[in-house]
Amino acid sequence: MSSFQMLGKGTFTPEITHVSSHGVWLLTSDQELFMSYDEFPWFKEATLNKILKMQEVSPGHFYWPDLDVDLSLENIRHPGRFPLKAHSNQHAVHSCRAQL
Predict the structure, then answer these.
(1) 35, 41 Cβ separation under 8 angstroms
(2) Pairwise CA distance, residues 47 & 50, whole Å
(3) Which of 72, 64, 69 is nearest to 28 (CA)?
(4) Domain spanning 13-99 has what CATH number?
(5) On the chain, which terminus has fewer CB atoms closer than 10 Å, C or N?
(6) Domain boundaries, the chain
(7) Are the beta carbons of 73 and 60 closer than 8 angstroms?
């Protein structure tokens, strides 16, 4: 492989490009994906710093350590195929209080 062919390989880092009142946009190496709060409630009450602190732990697999949220490209592209297994932190707190 020539040095010209190696230029730019492995230099792209996914990033959060926008956070709004509707959801979060994630830029990957080939597209920008929208994660609505309806489908991804963990981000709705999170601080901007916690949302921006994201890691790509393997290709197409993203982790937000401060939120303990772990999502794949498949989860993000097709959230309907993966029913939510957990509620947002705020909802979980209210549910626990209601049981007391």
Answers:
(1) no
(2) 5
(3) 72
(4) 3.30.2020
(5) C
(6) 13-99
(7) yes
